[in-house]
Amino acid sequence: MCQKTEIVGRSLFGGLSNSSPGLLTTSHEITCNNLFTQQQRTFIQMRTVLKVVDNSGAKKVMCIQALKGKKGARLGDTIIASVKEAHPNGKVKKGKVVYGVVVRAAMQKGRCDGSEVKFDDNAVVLVDKQGQPIGTRVFGPVPHELRQKKHVKILTLAGHIA
Amino acid sequence: MRLEKCWFCSSTVYPGHGIQFVRNDAKIFRFCRSKCHKNFKMKRNPRKVKWTKAYRRVHGKDMTQDSTFEFERKRNRPERYDRNVAENVLKAIPKIDKIRVTREERHHKNRMKGKKEKLMKEAVRELEQGISLVKAPSVLQQDPSLTLPKIKVKVSQQQSEENHAAMEE
Questions:
Q1: Is B164's Cβ below 8 Å from some Cβ in A?
Q2: Where are the transmembrane segments (chain A) (predicted)?
Q3: Which of A106, A146, B29, B61 could pair with A151 as two cysteines, CB 3.0-4.6 Å apart?
């Protein structure tokens, strides 16, 4: 009987603590999650450095503006970026301001069927203002969501579609 | 609609469930739930994690080779729709399922074959080694009712209970 009462008391207590809307509990949970998992991946925002995965001549660009979304760009969005590293004789020179489509993002994005997809790194394909790619090749996998975003040219250039 | 298998635990990933991770060499890892995804991120080997299908296969817990698994294989060539074929397939599915279940049961039975004798042997050994803790050897000699065969019978009853418990598990 004693044990039973104890259990009941505990469960009551637990219920109370759960029902109380506590900011403390949520923050505790977040810290616990961070302990066990990898770094939290987030949006592509100002000063995010992305890899360029085409033969336009740029190697690394830094995001200076996301064209859509308040928090930043996600998979498939267009960004404005400045070229930080470039090949010596490419089309795009270092320091230029370019447009790019995010073709790979480490932050997961929901798919139309409710599942999610995420990639290894943050990568971009440089495009002009009309959305036509500057380079003639695209390296690595790209998501099929680009078709909805009207970037069919990038999809045809890409070798793997995930 | 294709039902994929989870990379970690080999369970079925239904549409709209789980997360998929695409590596830079375009290999796709699909996970049925966050549990499997987290285990992948911790770089665990599914062959060493006991609750996965891979572990059970490697350690001979499950049936590995069977003709019923052939039906579930991934085919890259799309099958042309034929009404008769579809009907026959629907009819065959429960039958194949039944066959697979019975075969798995048989496999489990075969695997558990020596279990009873093993438990019995262990219990007898423990009894012989530890009887002196319950009764002093001199008492055993004086009282004929406490000789080993009788106690053996008693314990074998207990064992049968134990075996029942093991079977239930």
A1: no
A2: none
A3: A146
